[in-house]
Write a structure and sequence with these properties.
This protein is of the alpha/beta class. It folds into two domains: 169 residues, D-Maltodextrin-Binding Protein, domain 2; 98 residues, 3-Layer(aba) Sandwich (D-Maltodextrin-Binding Protein, domain 2), CATH 3.40.190. It is built from eleven helices and twelve strands. A seven-stranded mixed sheet has the order 7-6-8-5-9-11-12. A five-stranded mixed sheet has the order 2-1-3-10-4, with helices on both faces. A hairpin with a 4-residue loop joins strand 11 and strand 12. The longest helix has 33 residues. The termini are far apart.
Length: 338
Amino acid sequence: MSNGKILSLIIVLMLVSTLAITGCAPKPAPAPAPAPAPVPPPTVTVTVPAPAPAPAPKPQPVVIRLAADHSAAQASAYAENWFAEQVAKRIPGSEVRVYPASSLYKPAEALNMLSMGNLEMYCLQPTKTAGWDPWLNIITQPLCYTTYGAVLNLPNTKVAKMLEDRLEGRGVKVLSWGLHSLMTGIGAKKRLITLDDFKGMKIRVSAPLTQNPLFESFGASPVAMAWGDVPPALATGVLDACATSMGGFKQIKSTHSYFTVIGPGTALTDFYLYSVSKVWWEKLDPVTRDAVKAIFDEFIQRLNEMAFAEDAITLEKYGTKDPTKPEYTFSLRKNKHL
């Protein structure tokens, strides 16, 4: 073989080898695909219900003995029965036992029981309990009021607050004042037109410390006497007249049919201080205490309205504008019928 052919063959082999090497070489790896963007975890909303509000505390059952010295036929007694019904209705399991006409305790005994915590509630009449605390005579004295509203405002005065503080210091807490009658006056067998008509008369009083000087200044002879003894004393002539409320007058009208009203509160006021034992009251939990007090406040409003109505109904039933008739109710202050 000639040299030229050999050279040509070598060149061809070299080209084939180059192409073979090139074809067998690994291909470059493709560029990696971009990493996917991270996917945030799904948001899960869990709604947790708010806890139910705790039930409001309820008042606890109470048993209240309400002692009083007035009769069961007065407006105050009807109002007290309403109070008993409402306490039983609004505070389940509760009971109010009303004892009128001193059927449970006499006045001084009732106050002693209150102060010791052995009685829950008492309808305190100052004229009948002044022996227990003479300062109660302050509100039994004659007072120169001209309107019903002025009389009702007495419990809001500094004097009343002083008496309440004094009683509380002895274990008797006054919840409120109830006015049993605005028309207090003198029941007699004759019309009392002027102060001279009082001279020589024997007049029953309920608060001698303050009422005695009043009637003595009129020229009368005051006689302190419990109400139970008054009707027979009037019937037998031991007494000529009686200072009392309109309710009391209704009980003696058959024998002493003239009723003279000097003016609102002038002869006497007829307030009753509804009081509770401080020992018992402070043992009640606040919820029960508030529940009883709320009913009690309504009771006092009802009592005052009923007492006013009783006065008005009695005056309408028995009153007359004819001054020659016994039923004529006369005012010394303004010289006109009421």
